[in-house]
Amino acid sequence: MKNGNGNARHKAPTPRRGMPSPRLDEKEFKRRYRQQFLDPAFSSLSVEIDRIAAVAWDAYVNSRKAPVTRKAGDEFNDPSYDLSVEWLAAR
Known about the structure:
The protein has helices at about 25-35, 45-60, 85-90, and strands at about 70, 80-85. It has one domain. The chain is mainly alpha-helical. The longest helix has 16 residues, at about 45-60. The protein has three helices and two strands. It is flat and about 65 Å long. It has a two-stranded antiparallel sheet with strand order 1-2. The termini are far apart.
């Protein structure tokens, strides 16, 4: 099929619907986490690193992005909102 300019017209591609989840499964999360400790100096700490990776996985899977918070206070629109103390210190 040709359009008015004599160029071939292609059928429009079907648009994608939705997105795949960006969430990692436990195995992939821990694999990536352990990449920080590839230096042989960490090899004697493998058990400890596994324990820390398990805690990190729990924080990830339970979405604890800001585990240490405090109430926002009167200077904010919602004084009772729990804000990250790290964010408050950085502003």
